[in-house]
Amino acid sequence: MTADLKASLAGQGFVVIPGVLNPTQISSLRSACKTAHSLARSGQWPYLRTLPKQFPPWSFDASSGIWGIQHLLHPDMPSHKLFAALYFNNTIIDTIKQLLGCKEDELIMELYNLLRRPTREFELRWHRDDLPPSASAEEEENRLRVPAWHAQWNLALYDDISLIVVPGSHQRARTDTEREADAYQNDMPGQLVVGLRAGDAAFYDNNILHRGDYDCHKERATLHGSIGHVAGGKARARNVLQHGTAEWVETCCFDELEESMRQRAEMMRQKLIEIGRNEWSETGFTQVD
């Protein structure tokens, strides 16, 4: 199983793991997500992904519509204990250790967000998370030679076909066709729609060429998380801290978690605090839109 997961992520740039959640977990998490969404829409939660902006930083004004809710591990988030118990649980952590080939004490707490159905039709352009569209082929090749040093995932609470990828593109610069394509082209050569059933998770390299296509008429609640490796350094710091995590991570309290999970959470949180102190002033933003 370990070899299969690593081989799929290395070769294709993503791997789907079915049935990560059981029906009881799905029901509890759907309820928690509805509460978070209600707070966001009523202006009581400021950490949002607001329309029409695709990448951070986002406005706190929900009046134009929202497509995501940030910082599920924030201590002021209702049900943050439920979200934390999933983020730090054995299934997620063991999968990430297999994908990264690392030990638990090398892991860093990163991002945990919620992707929701937008209030109007909305798409994300083709992109790599840690490379701007203006990057030359040489710049892409240089960045893609560096190990990813993270695991990123979408865990669907409803059936989800929003993620579209070009398998294997995390290993190479864009082709001339990809570079010249429309930013929202819906028939990119080799593209694949990553279909998830409720409870499935897709782990993927965030520098795979990918985009999002969000249907405002279809219910969506997909947990969008990442966990990093201590070797990621400044590149991972930029990916994580541009979302504003450093502003609140020192106030986190995981005392309500079971003891072994609490210790794991605290260890990973402290590592995030360290990179926040050492790297934040120099991170900036990867994308401008």
Quick structural gist:
This protein has 289 residues and is α+β, with helices and mostly antiparallel strands.
Blueprint of the fold:
Layout: H1 2-12, E1 14-17, H2 23-41, E2 48-50, E3 66-69, H3 80-87, H4 90-100, E4 107-116, E5 122-127, H5 137-144, E6 150-156, E7 163-165, H6 176-180, E8 192-193, E9 201-204, E10 210-214, E11 221-229, H7 233-241, H8 259-279
Helix pairs in contact: 1-4
Explain this structure.
The protein is an alpha+beta fold. Helix content is 32%, strand content 20%. The chain contains 8 helices and 11 strands. The chain has helices spanning 2-12, 23-41, 80-87, 90-100, 137-144, 176-180, 233-241, 259-279, and strands at 14-17, 48-50, 66-69, 107-116, 122-127, 150-156, 163-165, 192-193, 201-204, 210-214, 221-229. The strands form 2 sheets. Strands 1-9-6-11-4-3-2 form a 7-stranded antiparallel β-sheet. Helix 1 (2-12) crosses helix 4. The chain is globular. The model has no long low-confidence stretch (mean pLDDT 91).
